[in-house]
Structures are given as structure tokens and as C-alpha cells.
Amino acid sequence: MSNALSSDILTVTELTRGLNGLVEDHYDDVWVEGELSDFTRAASGHCYFSLKDEDAQIRCVMWKHLTQHVYFEPEEGMQVRVNGHASVYERRGDLQIQAQAMRQAGKGAQQKAFEQLKQKLQAEGLFAPERKQTLPLFPDTIGIITSGQGAAVHDLQSGLARRFPPAEVVLCPVTVQGLDAPQAIADAVAAFNELPSDDAQRPDLLIVGRGGGSTEDLWAFNEEKVARALDASALPVVSAVGHESDVTIADLVADERAATPSAAAELVVPDRRDVAGRIRGLHDRLQTQVTRRLQNARQHVDALVASRAFHAPARRLKQYRQRLDVLADRLERGGTRVVKQARTRLDHLHDRLHALDPEQPLRRGYAHLTRDGMPVHSAESLDEGERVRLHFQDGHRDAHVLPSDA
């Protein structure tokens, strides 16, 4: 055997790097189908697993930021398709796939999983109308479970504040898509239910949802653990997921379904203008009824006085007339007092609604400060050079934050 020249001898690192280059050049973007095995999720959030068939297997890794696009819960033995690029892990010399996406294999696998869970829960009665709870007419506190960012939470908060300012809103921000989303949503529902009844944060009802997206983006709301959490909730739940055409398992289990997050705000609280109109209508009805009763009482008294039985003896007629006058006077004063009390209550409610009008401070010359559409509550939360918006009664102006010593 001839001795190799020193220039032909490779280090382990050089060999593995060369192999890695060859693999990446030829298999930079591939779809691989196989049976899922040894799936684990590290504390870092990265996922490690193997794909195998009858004759071979290959290790795979999916980084945490990519798992949000996996719409189902991977299970041992599940047939899946993985997209990614093959490489050689130099530290161990292992061939692996760095996965970018994962799908269930088979035509219609996603829809099949949806229909199987739907039939299972329906058979258990989770969709039955008699299990649905009634929403409170005037909730004092509303719990919202959704992403802390995006249009959905803004639409919910602004819609609730505009329609019914007295209602307090408690937001529990959670991730709403990816592998961690179903557990996060279920835990948030349970956490709200576990609050003591005297806790100011305990809501009267929950709104659970997110904005629109693809079927995969909304899939967390088709998971069984979310459905079980909504069914177990002692607090009424409104599901507000995606757009009107999107129907999820969560929509079917919840006590009420809102077509969109904006529609959820209209569903759970009345419009303050409608409330004021109802109060005025009740006041008018009460005043009409009291007036009618007084008129009927007077007519009855007049009829009694005019009857022949009261003309003799005259003394008894006078006594009964005096007594009827007293009763009529008491009835009239009582009716006037009821109307006055109702008017005072109406004025009080009108003053409260007027005081809660968010436009009032602007009419007095104050300005409302926002950053990226959200209110700013303290000077310390603003950084130098940051762009803010000043809202006045007749419009708004943009500004930048100057140094505190400027």
C-alpha cells in the first residue's frame, strides 16, 4: 500500500464541510415524506425529530420561529411531509434536514382531521344548544384572550370603549398560531376562570380569538385542548376567529360566535346611545301610565260622587268625598314622586354617559397622545426622537419627542 501525500490528507472538519457543501448544493430545497419519530421540543422551543421509512431514517431540526407555521400537534407515527434543506451537522458528522415547514401527508389530511374532531366532540354533546351560557346584558369586566399585537386586539378594545365606556377590559396576550398556541389559549381560559369572584380582574365573560389568516394560521382554534378549555369554562365565552367565512371548532363550542373581532364588540356590549334611548322610553312609559291611573281614579271618584246613593244622607256623602279627595291627593303626590325619581335617575345616567364621553376632554382644549395607535400613559414610556400623534377635537398632528432637558 502506498503512503498518501500529506497534501491529500483531509481533516475531519474539512471532510464534513466538503460533504455538507455537496449535500446543500444538491438538496437545498426538498420535500421529504416519512413517518414521524422521536419528536421532542427543547426548552429553547426548537424541535428535533426523525423521518423514517422501511429502509432508512434521517434526523431533522426545526427552529422555534418556524414552528408557528405548524398547524397541528405532531405525534409519534404520524405520516408527514417536511420541506427544508439537507446538510451535514459538522459537530457529529450527521446528515440532517433543517425543516422550514411541516404538513400532514395525504390528500385532505387537514380537512380529515377537522371532520374527525368535529364528529367526536359533537357526539359528546359539546355543540348542544342546552350547554350554551347566556351572555350578561351589561358586563362590568370583559376578558380578552388574543395576540397582544395586531388589528384584532385594537378593534376589540376600541369597539368596546366606543360602544360602552363603563366596561373594564382585561387583556391576556397569548400566541395564537403555531405549536405553542393551543396550550397558551387553553391556559389563559383556565387562568381567568380560576380568579376569585371578588378579584377585580375576574371578568363577566371572555372573548377568545384572532384576526384573519390562512387555514394553517387559524388552526390553533381547531385543536381539541382549546375546545375542551372553552367547554369547561364557567365564564361565558365568545369566539371571534378570522373572518365571517372562517368556521373553527372553537366557534362551535363557544357560547356565542362572532363573525369577526369587531363584531364581538357589538355582540357583548350595548351601544350607550341605545341604552340612553331605552331609559328615555321607559321614563315616558312610566309617566304615561301614572297619568292614566290618576285620570281613571278621578273618573271613578266623580262617578261615585254623582251616584244617587251618595246624596242621602248628605253628611255621609261629605265624609266620603273628603276621604276620596285625600286618597286622590295621595295618589297624585305618589305618582309625581315616582316620575321625579325616574327623571332624577335618568339625569344621573345621562351625566355619567356624558362624563365618560372620550371627546369631552378634547372639547375643553386638551389633547390625546398616542403612539402607533395606542394611548400613551406616562412620559417615561417615550424615548427621544420617537414619533407620536396629538389628537385634538378638530383633527390630529404628528410630533417627535425632544430630550427631557431641551
Taking the sheet with the most strands, its summary is: 5 strands, mixed, barrel
Number of E-state strands: 14
Outline, from the CA principal axes?
Answer: elongated
Q: Could you tell me the CATH topology label of the largest domain.
A: Rossmann fold
Q: In CATH, what is the homologous superfamily of the largest domain?
A: Hypothetical protein af1403, domain 2
Which structural class matches the secondary elements? alpha/beta
Oligomer: single chain
Order of helices and strands: HEEEEEHEHEHEHEHEHHHHEEEE
The whole-number mean of residue pLDDT values reads: 85
Write out the strand line-up for the largest beta sheet, numbering strands in chain order. 1-2-3-5-4
Number of helices: 10
Domain unit count: 4
Classified by CATH, the class of the largest domain is Alpha Beta
Q: What low-confidence regions span 5 or more consecutive residues with pLDDT below 50? A: none
Describe what this molecule looks like in 3D:
39% of the residues lie in helices and 22% in strands. The longest helix has 42 residues, at 314-355. The chain has helices at residues 12-26, 109-123, 151-163, 181-194, 224-232, 249-253, 261-268, 272-306, 314-355, 360-363, and strands at residues 30-41, 47-52, 57-62, 79-89, 94-104, 141-146, 168-173, 205-210, 237-241, 256-257, 368-371, 374-375, 387-392, 395-400. 20% of the residues are buried. The strands form 3 sheets. It has a 5-stranded mixed barrel. Strands 7-6-8-9-10 form a 5-stranded parallel beta sheet, sandwiched between helices. The protein has 406 residues and is α/β, with parallel strands linked by helices. The chain has 10 helices and 14 strands. The protein folds into 4 domains: 8-106, Beta Barrel (OB fold (Dihydrolipoamide Acetyltransferase, E2P)); 115-270, 3-Layer(aba) Sandwich (Rossmann fold), CATH 3.40.50.10550; 273-355; 361-400, no CATH class.
